[in-house]
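Journal club prep — side note

Before the paper discussion, L.F. wants everyone to see what a predicted structure for a comparable chain looks like in token form. Sequence:
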Amino acid sequence: MFDPVPATRPSAGLAVRCTRALLSPWSRLSLLVAVLLAAAACMLLFEPQRLLASGWPPQLTGSAAAMLFGVAYGVCTVAFVPRPLLNLAAGALFGSQTGLAAALAGTVLGAGVSFMLGRVLGQDALRTLLRGKWLKAADGLLSRHGFRSMLAIRLFPGVPFAAANYCAATSRMGCPPFLLATGIGSIPNTAAYVVAGSQATSPTSPAFLAAMGFIVLSGVGGALIAWRKRHRLGGGS
């Protein structure tokens, strides 16, 4: 009557050990790396930015097309497609107002998906690697002043979009302030690229020149801010 007991214990113990191994921080980080590599490979092979820019089905118009574009935009940002190209495509396809709405929706969607991937699959393992001075400084700013820091990152380009997403996911920053800061902070530069895309056929128009001027000025401002931050960190060593 006691025969089944020793037969079931080893299998149960093996199942527990396998489950713990699969759910360990490093296993989840490995899965995250595999997902990101697959996304990057798909971007290189299929070049979805070209499909959105020139291969968009002409029968898709109106709000439904803008919503579908927003979803595709979000997926493309997770796959590391540069946002400026997507913003230009949004303006060229839908005009300034609808294009801006679709681009911002895709921006928040892509940021949210990246954030959750990094938080669920990579946070526990990556936090053990935060030994560098820059990484610790970024983690401290995002953990203590998450909304304000992320808003500044989005307003002044310089930090790659995907890098900011996964850096925030590794910190203790909450998801709602991250998404809110991303949505608000992405408006100016996104709008500039969308307007430039909508006016691409008229490169001498005031709207196109103003948009390009804003893009250049924001880029220079972001570079100056990044240089000052780097200089302060270097001076503190």
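L.F.'s comment for the group: Residues 21 and 27 are 7 Å apart (CA to CA). Keep this in mind when we get to the figures.
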